[in-house]
Specification:
411 residues; mainly alpha; three-stranded antiparallel β-sheet; two-stranded antiparallel sheet; 14 helices; 63% helix; globular; transmembrane helix; transmembrane; acyltransferase
Length: 411
C-alpha cells in the first residue's frame, strides 16, 4: 500500500513540475505557486547552480561551465541529436529485451515484432529529414523569390537589411537599392530572421530546434510537424502494446481467478484493483515504468504538436507570436498614453472654463479616459493568414518551391 502512495505522490509531483515549467507563465497561474515554481525552474535554479559551482570550484570552474554552456546552447552541436538517438534506441532495446518474450500473446500477434521496427525506423527517417534538410536559407540566389513570396506588412515586418548577413546582389538598375558600383544591399525578406546559432537568415523562421541541430523554417516545417505527430503515435503505440502484454499475462496466468477463488477477494473493481496493481508492480515493474514514461512523453509531444498545428492553421510562426505580443503590448501602452493625454487636455479645458481648482498633475496623468471614447482596440491583423486550406497547403508546398516563383530565382 505504501508503494502505491509513493507512486501516486511521484506522479503528482512530476505533473506539477511539468505543468509549472511549460505553463507557469500563463495568465491563469499569475500570482500562484505554479508561477513561482516556473520562475525557480527557469531562472532561480540556474542562478543557485552557478553560485554553487563558483563556491566549490572557484571562478575558473564557473567560467569553464559557462564555456560549455555557450557551446551547448548557443553554437551548432550534435549533443541533443545524439541524445534523441540514445533515448529512442535505449527505449526500444529495453522494450524488446523485457517484453518481446511475451510475443505472441493472448492479445498481441507476431507481426508487432516487425511493425515496431518499421515504426521506429520511420521516426528516425523523419528526424534525419528535419535535421539535415534546408530550412529555407536566404541567399543572394533565392532572395528574389522570398521577397516576392512574403510582402512586408509594415507592422511587425518592414524593409530592413540584415546587419549580419549583408546579402548583396549584382543589379543592373541599382537606383531601387542602396547601390555601390552596381552591387546592391538587399533588404531581408519579410518573415525571415537571422539565427544567431546557425549564423544564417532563414525564411519563414519559426525557431531553432536544439534536438534537430537545425532551424525550423519555410522548407522543413512540414517534416517537423510530421516528426511530432509520428512520435506521438509511436509513444501511444508503445504504451498500448505494453498494456496489451500486461492484460494478456493477467489472462494467461488466471490472476483474477486465483485472487477470487483461492484468496477470497471480492470480484469487483474496487476489490481486485489494488491486488492486481501490486502483482503488476512485483512481476512487471519494467513494463509499468515504460508505459508511464511513454504516456508522459506522448502528452508533452501532444501539447507541443497542438501548439504548432495552431500556428500552421493561422499561418503564424513562433517568432511572429513573440513579435505580435511585443507589438500589441507596445500599442496598448501607446493608447493608454494617448488616453491620459486626452484626459489631461480635457481637465485643463474644464478648469479654464469653469475656474475650479485644478486636480494635481499626478492625479490627472494617472486618470484614464473612458475606453469607449479615447482608447482604440488593438487588433492583430495577420496579412499572411489566407484561410485554413491555403495555410495548410503553404506548409505542405512552400511558396519558394512553387512554379509561379521559380522563375525569380535567376533574377
Amino acid at each position: 500500500m505504501a508503494t502505491q502512495w509513493v507512486l501516486v505522490a511521484h506522479g503528482l509531483i512530476t505533473l506539477l513540475v511539468v505543468v509549472s515549467f511549460l505553463c507557469g507563465q500563463w495568465p491563469i497561474f499569475q500570482g500562484t505557486f505554479v508561477e513561482r515554481i516556473h520562475h525557480f525552474l527557469t531562472f532561480g535554479a540556474y542562478d543557485y547552480f552557478l553560485r554553487f559551482v563558483a563556491l566549490i570550484f572557484g571562478s575558473r570552474g564557473r567560467d569553464c561551465f559557462l564555456t560549455v554552456e555557450h557551446y551547448c546552447c548557443e553554437r551548432p552541436n550534435p549533443i541533443l541529436q545524439l541524445g534523441y538517438l540514445a533515448i529512442i534506441g535505449m527505449t526500444y532495446f529495453i522494450i524488446a529485451k523485457s517484453s518481446f518474450r511475451y510475443i505472441p500473446g493472448h492479445y498481441i500477434g507476431e507481426v508487432h515484432r516487425y511493425f515496431s521496427v518499421v515504426a521506429v525506423g520511420v521516426g528516425v527517417v523523419l528526424f534525419l529529414l528535419t535535421s539535415f534538410s534546408d530550412p529555407g536559407t536566404v541567399t543572394a540566389e533565392n532572395v528574389s523569390q522570398y521577397l516576392a513570396a512574403y510582402p512586408y506588412d509594415n507592422i511587425i515586418y518592414a524593409e530592413k537589411e540584415c546587419s549580419t548577413c549583408k546579402i548583396t546582389k549584382w543589379c543592373h538598375n541599382c537606383s531601387a537599392f542602396h547601390s555601390l558600383i552596381g552591387v546592391a544591399l538587399i533588404c531581408r525578406p519579410a518573415r525571415s530572421k537571422h539565427c544567431s546559432i546557425c549564423d544564417r537568415c532563414v525564411a519563414r523562421f519559426d525557431h531553432h530546434c536544439g534536438w534537430m541541430n537545425n532551424c525550423i523554417g519555410e522548407k522543413n516545417t512540414r517534416y517537423f510537424i510530421a516528426f511530432l505527430l509520428w512520435h506521438i503515435l509511436i509513444c501511444l503505440y508503445g504504451a498500448i502494446f505494453l498494456g496489451l502484454i500486461l492484460a494478456g499475462q493477467l489472462k494467461e496466468r488466471k490472476v483474477i481467478y486465483i485472487l477470487t477463488v483461492y484468496y477470497g477477494i471480492e470480484n469487483s473493481f474496487s476489490g481486485l484493483f489494488p491486488h492486481v496493481v501490486q502483482w503488476f508492480l512485483g512481476s512487471y515493474n519494467t513494463q509499468i515504468l515504460l508505459t508511464v514514461f511513454l504516456v508522459v512523453v506522448a502528452m508533452l509531444l501532444a501539447g507541443f504538436f497542438g501548439y504548432h498545428v495552431h500556428l500552421c492553421l493561422t499561418n503564424t510562426t513562433t517568432n511572429e507570436t513573440f513579435k505580435w505580443q511585443d507589438y500589441i503590448s507596445w500599442k496598448k501602452k501607446l493608447n493608454e498614453a494617448k488616453a491620459s493625454a486626452v484626459a489631461l487636455k480635457a481637465s485643463t479645458h474644464a478648469v479654464n472654463r469653469d475656474g475650479k481648482s485644478p486636480l494635481s498633475k499626478w492625479k490627472v496623468c494617472c486618470r484614464r479616459a473612458p475606453p469607449q471614447q479615447s482608447e482604440e482596440e488593438v487588433i492583430k491583423n495577420n496579412v499572411y493568414d489566407q484561410g485554413v486550406v491555403s495555410n495548410i497547403y503553404e506548409i505542405l508546398v512552400p511558396l519558394s518551391e512553387r512554379r509561379s516563383l521559380s522563375h525569380l530565382k535567376s533574377l
